[in-house]
Amino acid sequence: MNDALPASFESWPELGETQGVILLELLLGGPRSRARLAEAAGLSRTSLTRIARELIEAGLLGEGELQPSGHRGRPSESLFLRPERAHFVGVKLTGEAAYVVVTDLTAQVVEKVSAPLPNRSVDAVVELVAGLIAEVSVGFPLVAAVGIGVAGDVSDVGGVEVLHRSNFLGWDGIALSRLVAEATGLPTSMSNDVHALAASLHWFGGLGAHRSLIVYGLGAGIGSGLVVANDAAPGAHGRAGRIGHSRMSGSGVTCAKGHQNCIHSFVTMPAIEANAGVDPGQYEVALQRARAGDERALSAFRSASFALGVAVAESVNTVDPEIVAIMGEGRHMLDLAPDDFVSAATEYLEQVDFSQVRIERPDFHFDSYAQGAAVVAIRRLLTSRT
After folding, report:
1. Suppose 99 and one of 61, 66, 72, 92 were both cysteines; which one would form an S-S bond, judging by CB atoms 3.0 to 4.6 Å apart?
2. What values do phi and psi take at 27, rounded to 5?
3. What is the pLDDT of residues 238-250, one digit of tens each?
4. pLDDT at 261
5. CA separation for the pair 21, 386 (Å, rounded)
6. Which of 146, 202, 175 is nearest to 27 (CA)?
7. Strand residues in the chain grouped as ranges (E)
8. pTM score, two decimals?
9. What is the distance between the alpha carbons of residues 87 and 227, in angstroms, rounded to a whole number?
10. What share of the chain is helix, strand, coil (3-state, %, to 5)?
11. Residue 298 above 50 pLDDT?
């Protein structure tokens, strides 16, 4: 494994705000004629011509012909994004491993690698991540930025991103993105892993036009990410979407805070394992037993489904989103006990019928977290936002 990035890596060109707007318009809206692009960006044709020429020279845009509707008249000249011109690295950290992907400018994953953590010390993890970034980036001439997704709260402290309360890693107060940037020489951003999923789904999820969204990530824990007013909303202190310890009825496994009746007590994979009566780490065994009709295992998934319905209802009551997306490696309760989810959501929703809530289950694989982190890097580079 290499421990440094190749010296031949090019750098992302310095872009003005208007150039970023043009790239963003083409990234999210696809190829367009110069006239329509100028209108969308609020630019004169003269200004667009100058800016487009600069972006074409930088290799970020291409030119072509856009056939008019009905194929009548002269084709207009169009501009389009060249997604292969720049690549981004996304990193997902768990308490056991690092997952790293490379995406193009449209967030398509083109390479990936993973490795177990040697230990959970900050120095060891930073060294591993830097080495994986170097390894996975070979062959991509322009790696523009890195994004890191990790469970925990990420806030700005004096202009520095700081990770707080990352329980799976046992870290608190760690400026991880700065350390990785120093180790790699690449601009590096950091976000909560489920917040990154929300940012990714908002831009590239194929859910159609929307301005508000809640994404739930179900796995070793439960978290949610928000999009409000067409922008990611991590919260003032990076804590938006913490819903795992909201209380409900019932008695599940005791959570880390000593609750037996919170959402965490039922809906996480460790809680399902305990409530199903299987050993820690035997989620697949619990799943198999539930599918075979084992009463205790099925009860654990029914309780998880009900708890998720409570969580979704409370978030809908608070945020009133257009879309609720449920993702993560631990969302099988929706297949095994969908009626319990609907029952809970119906009971806890206020002044809205469940049929009015748009529930989506987008495609998910564990690399989606790392892909989301790469999207955060793309967003940061083009908009200065997460």
Report:
1. 92
2. -65, -45
3. 878 787 666 666 6
4. 77
5. 15
6. 202
7. 32-33, 61-66, 76-81, 87-93, 97-104, 109-116, 143-150, 153-157, 160-164, 188-192, 213-218, 222-228, 231-232, 323-327, 359-360
8. 0.88
9. 25
10. 40, 25, 35
11. yes
Q: Is residue 145 within 8 Å of 377, Cβ to Cβ?
A: yes
Region of 47 (left: φ > 0; alpha: ψ -120 to 50; beta: rest) is alpha
Tokens 């004096």, residue located: 158
335-382 pLDDT, tens digit per residue, is 999 999 999 999 999 988 999 999 999 999 999 999 999 999 999 988
* Average confidence score pLDDT of the chain: 89
Q: Sign of torsion, CA 275 276 281 284?
A: negative
DSSP string, 5-66: --TT---PPP--HHHHHHHHHHHHH--EEHHHHHHHHT--HHHHHHHHHHHHHTTSEEEEEE
Three-state DSSP state, 184: helix
Q: Give yes or no for residue 234 having a pLDDT over 90.
A: no
- Taken in order of first residue, the domains within the chain and their CATH numbers are 17-81 (1.10.10.10), 86-198+367-383 (3.30.420.40), 209-360 (3.30.420.40)
Question: What is the predicted pLDDT for the residue at 1?
Answer: 39
Distance CA 98, CA 85 (A): 26
Tokens of 104: 């193009």
